[in-house]
Amino acid sequence: xxxxxxxxxWYAANKRSLPWRGERDxxxxxxxxxxxxxxxxxxGTPYYLKFLSAFPTVYDLANAPEERVLKxxxxxxxxxxxxxxxxxxxxxxxxxxxxxxxxxxxxRKLKGVGDYTASAxxxxxxxxxxxxxxxxxxxxxxxxxxxxxxxxxxEGIKYFKSLAREVMDGDNIREYNQGIMEFGAIQCVPKSPxxxxxxxxxxxxxxxxxxxxxxxxxxxxxKVRHRHFNYxxxxxxxxxxxxxxxxxxxxxxxxxEFPLIESDxxxxxxxxxxxxxxxxxxxxxxxxxxxxDSPVVHKLSHxxxxxxxxxxxxxxxxxxxxxxxxVHKYPVPVLIADFFAKIRTxxx
Length: 348
Description:
Layout: H1 3-14, H2 26-36, H3 41-54, H4 58-62, H5 66-73, H6 79-96, H7 104-108, H8 115-126, H9 135-145, H10 154-167, H11 173-186, H12 205-208, E1 225-235, E2 244-245, E3 256-257, E4 260-263, H13 269-273, E5 285-290, E6 296-299, E7 303-314, H14 334-343
């Protein structure tokens, strides 16, 4: 039995019941794939259902305010993907009369749709013989065939795509693509896979050579940048606080956050006070309290944010102050959302 046939047989017996399983609607498949690029199925499913409830069709998503899209995306990270999702929906509605492209090349033209997503939509929705290559597929192919090329290198990406096309079952591409992704997700897992019950064990190169944990090979990660954030939770005499929107490109573009002082290292209260004039009249500050003794380390892909929250009470009235009852309406980074939850309970 061929590699592809073994995958198909395993998938028929082991596939999970998922909300998008069996779907052919490109809008729903596209939505599920974009969300699952960010997280695992267990964490991504509630987001998928939440988005479908808020935006049942691509028209609903295209016509939604960006802030609402970002708010629903909150917690997934990589917010540029949410903005691309919104932009692509507008393209489908505005330029294509609400109809998704039905071929790989057309799908690739949508903002935020790369090789993997285009291949998934083309195969699952339109039964086109386009192989998918995601993290799960890289792992299965690298282990089974003993491929040592780094999956993050240009050479490796090209090779794995070619290999995936060579071994796929083009006649059953819809089921095969879903099957190999599922196989990597629940059978050929990154750590401690149950190789004794694997249908590929008799011919798996990595298993025969004792190299399961060595493959796939990844190139060395980029150096992590360490940044020091000092967030000001301001509270004026009317009980209002202040949020500001991050409009520059970079992390969390268009999300909202407390006024921020970024420093080269941890700073003292005295050093903080000397920089308050950019946000309020330092002479009217009643009280400053450091909320967390040790910085909260928030880890992004190439950045670690060492964050301290400062509680600052002032006698002045904050211009554009926001009542606490309204802060939950703003899309914020999960770092800020966690702080909201810790300092006060409110009904979202």
